[in-house]
Design brief:
The complex is a heterodimer of chains A (339) and B (337). Chain A has 339 residues and is an all-alpha fold. Chain A is built from 13 helices and no strands. Chain A has a single domain, classed as Orthogonal Bundle (ABC transporter involved in vitamin B12 uptake, BtuC), CATH 1.10.3470. In chain A, helix 1 packs across helix 2. The radius of gyration of chain A is 20 Å and the shape is globular. The N terminus of chain A is likely disordered. Helix content of chain B is 73%, strand content 0%. Chain B contains 14 helices and no strands. Classes of the chains: A mainly alpha (339), B mainly alpha (337). Chains A and B meet through helix 6 and helix 13 of A and helix 6 and helix 14 of B.
């Protein structure tokens, strides 16, 4: 029995490993093309040459100082969103229980706007505001769900309702703002990677470096929580403590991503599910979800720069429109399900 | 629910009182809507402007700016309240709402397409696109979400809204100048609407109103279930068609007139049913009277909170409607999942 279980786990791990490596390879290829795109367009060979250190000074400036950080920020934001989505979908045992559907992204945005308006627009202030906003939203959802606990379609409906309220609050805050603050907050609210430099990279790297090890420790608990709290408790998981830690990690991932790039919709929803289609692994797809999230955001940003010749679309607009279609497709193909 | 223990008999006597109360509330809110603004007027000045107009400055303010806005609010509220009651009656879905989560963004997308691809700019022509877009998006959300499950319906609304918002934002990025007017359709507002635009919509509004009120009896039969309805000699399919046609006419004209205002159709019928019970012959007229109370109330509150500017009525109804939605979900799914 044990041998059999180990064999199955190994087989799944092999498939997961291949999937993750495949996503990384795709990410690198897309990344090279994305770096080559822009007002000064470069061939993939030129990009690689510059990255290796053999480019001209101008090429170095464009590639390393301007376009590479944007790519890295996109990938890290996507990874953070993918992690948050995978953790929440497993915790709530609901494919729709992802941070963007149940309001955490909007709540983080509210926190971010409040800090832009009250404290000024430093990166640290926005990040702190987004974190506080996300945490408060999580607390509000938990309170609203009450003794039924997080999970189920009741939570999805409550989350959708809460995000409508918060979106209204966001609009109100924007009308109260001075014009220049409002302009900045509006740009940020769309979900945008433009103009992100290395200064935006480090907070993401540090946050993820702190959160991911904690998360890795808790993934086994998450896997057991997904099969039910009673089973998890029976298997020796300290249910409420593990769940709280996991919620904090997921909210922090959402908040740091939102603080850096604004609310980029639907990545947290779609990334873990698309990753699951690749890995065919039934448990929490945290690492593949992170890889897929990174790929989705980078692709969206790339597409936003390439789709229209005259103007640039922010990544958040691309993921919003495509994510809506994805959700519609999900509803259409799973219409026989009992919700 | 606890109310079901009360028999239908005492409820019937509530209806006249509720009707009277709704009328009073409507008059009060309408007067407030005329009186409150960047230039606050006294009740005397309002009444003077309405009933003994002699061309003084305050009278002109009342007649030319506040009164048209209030009339617009009344018409839109009436259409949305009625449409919500119809929709909840037809689908028997407690969260059905014509504007749920940006169905009305369909109007905005239609206008974007009209301006970008056909180069149409005249408001009177754009209104038709808004109308068509609103009806199309309603159909799309209900086709995706089905009508029975509240969760599917809400999620279909989220999906359609996200896609349409994305298209709108993309269009705004592409073409900032000519689409500036389109922003009006992104958030519903009663401010600065052209009354001339409303005139061609009035026949549709009236037609929707008549169809809606005519379907009250049929909706009562539907509430009993399809089999019983057939047994009573009613035709559920015909009632549904008539009622959804009425919803399309009412929402289309309301959205074309003022832009997307969501949740009015969600909140009002629930409040009405709390007062008078399930009889659609009472629910429909009361929803029709209380819809304007909510729309005007939110508009007035938006002017107070947003001073010196104003907060669009669509934002206010989103906030209140969202809160009401939370209460509703907690009530309806109190015991179950």
């Amino acid at each position: 029995m044990r041998v059999h279980a180990g064999h199955v786990a190994l087989a799944m791990n092999a498939r997961t490993t291949v999937a993750v490596l495949g996503m990384l390879a795709t990410l690198l290829v897309v990344g090279v093309f994305a770096i080559g795109t822009g007002d000064y367009s470069m061939s993939p060979a030129a990009v690689l040459r510059t990255l290796a250190g053999d480019g001209t000074k101008a090429e170095y400036l464009i590639v390393v100082e301007q376009r590479l950080p944007r790519l890295v920020v996109g990938a890290l934001v996507g990874a953070a969103l993918g992690i948050a989505g995978a953790v929440f979908q497993s915790l709530t045992r609901n494919p729709l229980g992802s941070p963007d559907i149940i309001g955490f992204t909007t709540g983080s945005a509210t926190g971010g706007i409040v800090s832009i308006l009250l404290l000024g627009a430093g990166a640290a202030q926005v990040a702190a505001g987004a974190l506080v906003g996300g945490m408060l939203t999580a607390a509000a959802i938990t309170l609203l769900c009450g003794r039924h606990g997080l999970g189920g379609y009741r939570m999805v409906l409550l989350g959708v309702g809460l995000s409508v309220v918060l979106a209204g609050v966001n609009s109100y805050l924007l009308t109260r703002a001075f014009v220049e603050d409002a302009a900045q907050a509006t740009t940020w609210l769309v979900g945008n990677l433009a103009g992100r430099d290395w200064n935006s990279v480090w907070p993401l790297v540090i946050t993820l470096a702190v959160l991911v090890p904690v998360l890795v420790v808790h993934v086994p608990a998450l896997r057991m929580l997904e099969s039910g709290e009673l089973i998890a408790a029976g298997l020796g998981v300290r249910v409420s403590r593990s769940r709280q830690t996991l919620i904090v990690i997921a909210v922090a991932c959402t908040a740091v991503a939102t603080a850096t790039a604004g609310p980029i919709a639907f990545v947290a929803l779609a990334a873990p599910q698309l990753a699951r289609r690749l890995t065919r692994y039934a448990g929490p797809n945290v690492l593949p979800g992170a890889g897929m999230g990174a790929l989705l955001v980078v692709l969206a940003d790339f597409a936003g720069q390439r789709l229209l010749s005259a103007s640039l679309l922010p990544a958040g607009v691309v993921t919003g429109a495509l994510g809506g279609v994805y959700l519609a497709w999900l509803l259409f193909w799973e219409r026989r399900r009992s919700w | 629910m606890a109310q079901t223990t009360a028999s239908a008999q005492p409820r019937r006597s509530v209806f006249p009182a509720a009707l009277f109360g709704a009328l009073i509330a409507l008059v009060v809110v309408a007067l407030l809507s005329i009186a409150i603004g960047s230039n606050p007027l006294s009740l005397d000045a309002v009444l003077h402007g309405l009933f003994s107009y002699d061309g003084r400055y305050d009278d002109v303010v009342v007649r030319d700016s506040r009164l048209p806005r209030t009339v617009l609010g009344v018409l839109v509220g009436l259409a949305l309240g009625l449409a919500g009651a119809l929709m909840q009656g037809v689908t028997r879905n407690p969260v059905a709402d014509p504007g749920l989560l940006g169905v009305n963004y369909g109007a905005a997308v239609a206008i974007v397409l009209a301006s970008t691809t056909f180069g149409i700019q005249a408001p009177a022509a754009l209104v038709w696109f808004a109308f068509a877009g609103a009806v199309f998006a309603t159909a799309l959300v209900y086709a995706l979400g089905g009508t029975v499950s509240p969760v599917r319906l809400v999620l279909a609304g989220v999906a359609v809204q996200a896609t349409f918002v994305g298209i709108n934002q993309a269009a705004q990025v592409i073409d900032t100048h000519t689409l500036d007017r389109m922003r009006f359709w992104l958030v519903g507002t009663l401010a600065n609407r052209d009354m001339d635009v409303l005139a061609p919509l009035l026949p549709f509004l009236v037609a929707g109103l008549i169809l809606a009120l005519a379907s009250a009896r049929g909706l009562n039969a539907i509430a009993l279930g399809a089999d019983v309805a057939h047994g009573l000699g009613a035709s559920p399919a015909r009632t549904r068609t008539v009622a959804m046609l009425a919803v399309g006419l009412l929402c289309g004209s309301a959205t074309a007139a003022v832009g997307p205002i969501a949740f009015v159709g969600l909140m009002i019928p629930h409040l009405v049913r709390l007062m008078v019970g399930q009889d659609h012959r009472q629910v429909l007229p009361l929803s029709m009277l209380l819809g304007p109370v909510l729309v005007l109330g939110c508009d007035v509150l938006g002017r107070l909170l947003g001073a010196p500017g104003e907060l669009q009525v669509g934002i206010m109804t989103d906030v209140f409607g969202g809160l009401m939605f939370l209460v509703l979900v907690r009530r309806l799914w109190g015991a179950g999942r």
